[in-house]
Amino acid sequence: MEQEELIGLIEKYLRGTATVKEREDVLRWYRSVDHGRIEIPLENSLEKEEMRDRMHYRLQQYLTQNRPGRKITRYRWAAAAAILLLIASGSYFWVYFNHREIGNKAVASSSLMNDLPPGGNKAVLTLSNGTKIILDNAHNGQLAVQGKSKIMKVDSGLLAYNTQSSMQKLQSTTLQYNTLATPRGGQYQLILPDGSKVWLNAASSITYPTAFVGKERKVKITGEAYFEIVHNANKPFKVEAEGREIEVLGTSFNVKAYTDDPLMKTTLITGAIKVSNILLKPGQQDCIDKQTDKTTVKESNTDNVIAWVHGQLPLQGDDLATLMRVISRWYNVNVTFEGKVPQSSFVGRIGRDVSLSNVLNALSVYGIHTRIEGRTIIVSEK
Predict the structure, then answer these.
(1) Which of 13, 221, 300, 338 is the most exposed place for a label (fewest CB within 10 A)?
(2) Backbone angles phi, psi at 109, to 5 degrees
(3) Beta strands 205-209 and 217-228: pairing type?
(4) pLDDT digits (tens, 9 = 90+) for 307-345
């Protein structure tokens, strides 16, 4: 069983959301490690805790058999809300983040004076005339009118366009473009004029017309966005990112195209899309190396890819530099490295509601040394 698949199955098993087949897969793996009998746990907390202890022991046994390394302490397993597997210096490690528990159990030497909160619903809307509306301070209700569309702030973190004109009237409408942009430490949701939904991650933007006229629906993004597109066979949906075009055929998909990332990643969740004339199937991810322009298509863990939409920071075999870019965007901090960058890889998820000090405390357990100075994280070998 692949490491990433094992992580997902055990996480679902412990949360009680695994299907019958997934449950059987976990039990089969558990038996293969233990060569013994396993009891199905009841719902009370003591038995759940006992199962976590047993899982911890089996994971420790399994991982150290495959890659000998340091042991995982009882606290490291029990202290989290999302499972994070750290693969550092050739060894596998598990951490369990939970902001409710870590607040009392975190490393005492951490300087909470320098702690920083996680991000939240923050964005700026730029109208066609250049007017900027700071959405986190704006009231709910109608914010503006652009052409034939009313712009509504539906709730904290959600913007919607309400177009009531007929298609014939829309065809005669002068095209106007708006831009929704999130800062570092921000996220926002958008309902486009056709009813399609967009989730914007931190340090991202989307530029779009206030009404979709003509033969296609086209938007442009920077950073990362997740889309759920309303199907319209007569008016295909297209996304431009990093100078490349994604053609959508009524579907849900994720585009990660940060300028400071070496790869542009497009992951299909449902339906069908074309990226550079390559037709993707659900579960496939198109990776473009921006330096060489080489394209690779591979299978992807879609739950991990869109975990950020559901309040988690996904880690997908990322190295430390990539992880720190993720942290930089969500916590609105700068990151600098002193000396050699530690060679580590990370797979799993971190809750987006965890404070920065708790994340850094967890990393310090495994030899990733950091300190916070103002809004800068300094990563060092010692």
Answers:
(1) 338
(2) -75, -5
(3) antiparallel
(4) 899 988 877 677 888 889 999 999 999 999 988 877 777
